[in-house]
């Protein structure tokens, strides 16, 4: 079974796939990978995103153009659209 097959079968998470690929190809930890790891670890350590105290994390995840995960001009809403959608984005992040 390939790594992609393992992901599609639900036996391997995307995070585990990235780890496996990094180990398999002997990649050095790139700046992107370090930022990705730091941000995803921070997200995993956050127990809830439903409170205003976590709005900075929610904003970084859904609004900032270079958030540690993607920087290729993801479909970022305007600030007004983001603020209007904040309750929904909190709920989606919570899931």
UniProtKB/TrEMBL annotation:
GO terms for molecular function: endonuclease activity. Keywords: Endonuclease, Hydrolase, Nuclease. This is Restriction endonuclease.
